[in-house]
Structures are given as C-alpha cells and as structure tokens.
Amino acid sequence: MLTRRALGSIAAIALVAMACATPAGTPTPGASATPGASATAGATATAGATPTAAATQGAIGPGEGELNLVIWAGYAERGAVDPNFDWVTPFEDQTGCTVNTTDMTDSNNGVSLMQSGNYDGISASGDATTRLIQGGYVEAIDPNILPNYANVFPGLKDLPHNTVDGVNYGVPHGRGPNLLMYNTEVFTEAPTSWDAMWEGGAAYAGKISVYDSSIYIADAALHLMATQPDLGITDPYQLNQAQFDAAIALLEAQAANDPLYWSSYTDQMASYTSEEVVVGTTWPLQVALLQANDPPVPVAGVKPDEGTTGWSDTWMMAKDAAHPNCMLMWMDWMMGPEANSQATVWFGEAATSPQSCAAAEALSPGHCATQHADDESYWENIYYWSTPQENCADADEATTCVTQEDWVEAWTTLRGA
User: Fold this and answer.
1) Same-domain check for residues 327 and 286
2) What is d(CA 377, CA 206) in angstroms, rounded to the nearest whole number?
3) Residue 5 lies inside a defined structural domain of this protein
C-alpha cells in the first residue's frame, strides 16, 4: 500500500523531532511554477480572526530566529531516524529559524497546546482547524505571498475546513486515509471491509487495535452508514442524537471484545510486532515502518470497500505568533518540492503538487500514483477528520447535531477514564 522505500532499521526506532540551533539568516525558501489539478472536501468553519500585517504583507519579513510548532509525529524530521529524510535542517540553514517541535497525541491535545499561546503554528487536521478558527486561536493568511502556493493542486486550495468566506487560515501539508492494518499470516486473504473491527470482532477478541481518541466515534458512524442506512447518516462527523447513540452502542459492543487502544503510533507498532494484536485501524506510517523492519513484520494495510476516515492537514499560524515570519517561511517551505516530497513519502501521504510528486519519484518511485495524489475518485469515500458541530456544519437551522464536547465526554465515559 505504501510507496516509501524500505528503511530496514527504522521500524525499531521511535520517530523523533529534535531541535538544534543554526546561524541566523533571512532568505525565504520556495519557488513558483504551474499548478496541477485535484479536488477534496472538509468540514465547514464559521468564524475567524482578522489578518495581521504579518499575514497579509506583500513579502515575508526577516526571520525571528526561532519557530515553535505543534505537530503530528513525523511531520518535522531532521535525519535522526534516517539521514535521507531531513527537511528541517535545510530550512534552518536557509532561514536562520531554529525549529522546536511538540508532538500531539490527537487533535484534542493539539488544540489544547495551541490554546496555551506558547506556539507559532500547528499541523492541524480538520477536527482541529474549525475549533482553532472559531476560537480565534489562529491567524488568517494571504497564501499568495507564499511562492510555493501557486504549485498546489487546485483541489487542495480554499477548502471548507480551513477557509471562511474566502479567507484562508492555512496551507495544505498532505492528505491520507486511515487504513485497516492486518496480520497477513492470520488473514490469508486481504479483508475487504471493516467487519473484523465490528460485528466480526469476536473472532479477534483481545487482538483488535483501536485509535484512542474521540474522533474514532466517526469510524463507528462510517460503518453504520454502510450497514444501517435507515439511520440516515450522510456525514460521520455530524450526527443527530439517534445516530450518535447508535455509534456509541456499536463502540460499546466493540469494547466488549477487549481491544487494545493506542494513542502513540510506536505503541501500536510494538503491539503488532509482538503479535499482541492482529487487526486494527492505523495510519500509513505504521504499515510502512513495520514492513520495513528487519525482519519485516507480516502486516499489510487496505482501504476497505465501504470507505474510511482520513485527514487533510493544514499548517496554521497562531494568532499573535511570536515568530510570524519564521512561520510563514515554514508554511511555504512545507509546500515546496524538497520538503513536501520527503514529508509525504515519509508518512505515506499524498503530495500536494506536481512538483512535489516529481521530487517524490526520486525518493520512492510511483509514490504519487500509489498515494492517489491527483486521483480524485480514490478520495470520494474518504471522510476527512472534521469537527462535530451543533449546527451540523450546514445551513439548515432545523437540524441539530451532537457537539465536539459531547463526543469527548462520551469517549471518556466509554474508556472509563
């Protein structure tokens, strides 16, 4: 499923994001070229902040020497795991902005970290972007001052989960599906549905791997879309009370099969390596790392027929960021071919531009074809993480949905935390 090349030793090593100082400087990385074509979807944001001068000026000013980021693990590699994957060091060398990172465990944790005011930016999924915009925690951006934005596939621009009334609140990083990962020695034929996680889960009791976050409720809702159409679910993130209750009931039935919940991807990898679990929901990163282990762990990843949840991530700048110019430089850098190709090959994501795909080809031949970077039909049944909203993220005032806060409370109750 993954196209990143075999990195024999890295599966046994935790991905790390380390910081180091570099000489000061002010050049802005990036280059412009001709955009490609694509399309996608996301959750609707309904409020936002007013752009600052730093976000809308005609050119990026001198860097402030430092950059503090909240990231998904693996989004800011500096060669510590594999020297062939280092897009942080050249950024620091070119800009003089020393990159410091804090990994988030899930979007709820990422939002909380951004609310502290201690960070310049975040790699936010759609179940965080809307909350950050509505809460006024992130800054509006004029992407046209970022040279590499011109290259981005048109379908990844102006998305509902990071754009309000035509105002952008970030730029794309990459997108990907949540996969069903299975032990190929236990499953002699590739599964075609999520059934092993749900109604068929009793056959794998005690050996099911589940993502430990309230956003996983959407995975249950997605399964109900396929198996109980009478519930009328059309968006697994915007659920009325009856739909939400049905999803919770399905999760309670799953919990009876004693799944192992993971929040750290390295913990999930360890559970597959030890054969403590044999099937579960995962990111492409874990599949690639386990397959690249020495010896390889017998796993594979698949997008089941009924579709899956997934992500379309956005680099967002904090409101009143202490280092806005370094953040703008980073946003442009992460859309450029050098960084975007490395980052998306490393994590197993779809690159964001034709130029990044060309660079990725040298790292991992066939990467963009395998990751369906410009194949919109592949993404039609992938539902990107989005924020549950009381107004159901639509214009119908008569509909009411279960809120993000209620999702978190229900998940906490389910987990007994």
Assistant:
1) no
2) 35
3) no
Which residue range(s) make up the domain with 407?
A: 178-309+389-415
Contacts of 208 (CB under 8 A, 6+ apart): 196, 197, 201, 254, 257, 258, 259, 260, 277, 279, 280
Could you read off the pLDDT of 186-239 as tens digits, one per residue? 999 999 999 999 999 999 999 999 999 999 999 999 999 999 999 999 999 999
Q: Which residue has the tokens 């002010």?
A: 26
Distance, CA of 300 to CA of 187 (rounded, Å): 10
SS (H, E, C) 149-215: HHHCCHHHCCCCCCEECCEECCEEEEEEECEEEEECCCCCCCCCCCHHHCHHHHHHCCCEEEECCHH
Give the C-alpha separation, 173 to 377, whole Å: 20
CA 125 to chain centre: 5
Give the Cα separation of 105 and 87 in Å (integer). Answer: 22
Cα 330 to Cα 139: distance, rounded to the nearest angstrom = 15
For residue 259, give the 3-state DSSP assignment: coil
Q: What is the CATH number of the domain that holds 23?
A: 3.40.190.10
pLDDT in tens, 164-194: 999 999 999 999 999 999 999 999 999 999 9
User: CA nearest 310: which of 176, 212, 157?
Assistant: 176
* Amino acid (one-letter) located at 159: L
Domain check: are 199 and 243 in the same one? yes
Q: How many residues are listed for the chain in this entry? A: 417
Same domain, yes or no, for 345 and 397?
no
Residue 50 makes CB contacts below 8 A (sequence gap 6+) with: 140
Amino acid, single-letter form, for residue 131:
R
pTM score, whole prediction: 0.80
For residues 263 and 337, membership in a common domain is answered with no
Q: Which amino acid is at 411?
A: W
Strands 279-282 and 179-183: antiparallel
Q: Is the dihedral of CA 123, 127, 129, 134 positive or negative?
A: negative
User: In the 8-state DSSP scheme, what is residue 138?
Assistant: B
Share of the chain above pLDDT 70, in %: 86
